[in-house]
Design goal:
- The protein is mainly alpha-helical.
- The chain has 2 domains: about 100 residues; about 130 residues, EpsJ-like (Ribonucleotide Reductase Protein R1, domain 1, Orthogonal Bundle), CATH 1.10.40.
- The chain has 7 helices and 6 strands.
- Its main location: membrane.
- Pfam families: T2SSK_1st.
- This is T2SS protein K first SAM-like domain-containing protein.
Length: about 240
């Protein structure tokens, strides 16, 4: 009996050791995971404030521009406020971290909120939209932006968009990405319309448009606008450069 008791005690001891080992491994894994999470949080926080610092520095650089009326893009595609002043764009050190900063001119793009139908047609042609598709996109775009509920011939208002869970904007664009919400620029309904819900053709069109459009600005700065924008506006880029 004594030998049997010792055997049972040994088995119990082994099971206790196994259980303690499992608990120790679990605790160790939890500590490592939490430690890694804390390091990631600290790094994310540091990088966030490095980016904010660079952003604030860029704002100060822009605010100190002695003559905002002569901004332009140089031959290397870098935004400059004048020929004598060094550009801000580039890699900068902020709190020991390296941050790459790019300053661009919103008025080098077409503002969707003041874009007329002629320029929009030229823009869609530049993006490669087939001629037979352009009338629909013109009408749906204008119906989205205008303040009334009246349908254009090929347009769309609330009665169309309600099936997708939202209404026509009937107001100003808040961002260029709103194009993904407009009839003709997406394909299927979902809880939240996004780029992934767009047809391949629509994604290609919007991808070509996004670098050329904005929801801000009062007009076009011909000194910083790319050739594509000048062509859309019917301006001669060579004559402007001269």
């Amino acid at each position: 009996m004594a030998g049997g008791s010792r055997g049972v005690a040994l088995i119990i001891t082994l099971w206790v050791l196994v259980l303690m080992s499992v608990l120790a491994l679990g605790f160790s894994s939890t500590v490592r995971r939490e430690s890694k999470g804390a390091r990631n949080f600290a790094e994310d926080t540091r990088l966030h404030f490095a980016a904010v610092s660079a952003y604030e520095e860029a704002l100060r650089w822009l605010a100190s521009d002695p003559d905002p009326g002569i901004d332009f893009v140089d031959g290397d595609g870098v935004f400059r406020t004048d020929r004598e002043r060094e550009p801000f764009t580039g890699v900068r050190n902020s709190s020991g971290d390296t941050v790459e900063v790019t300053v661009s001119d919103e008025e080098a793009r077409l503002n969707l909120n003041i874009l007329n139908e002629y320029s929009l047609r030229r823009l869609l042609e530049h993006a490669g939209v087939p001629d037979e598709k352009i009338p629909e996109l013109l009408d749906t775009f204008m119906d989205w932006r205008d303040k009334d509920d009246l349908h254009r011939l090929n347009g769309a208002e609330d009665d169309y968009y309600e099936a997708f869970g939202y209404n026509a904007k009937n107001g100003r664009f808040d961002s260029p990405e709103e194009l993904f919400l407009i009839k003709g620029f997406f394909q299927k309904p979902s809880g939240e319309v996004s780029e992934e819900d767009s047809s391949e053709e629509a994604r290609e069109v919007v991808a070509k448009l996004l670098p050329l459009i904005s929801a801000w600005g009062q007009g076009i700065n011909v000194n910083s606008a790319p050739t594509e924008i000048l062509d859309v506006l019917g301006l001669d880029s060579k004559a402007i450069e001269a």
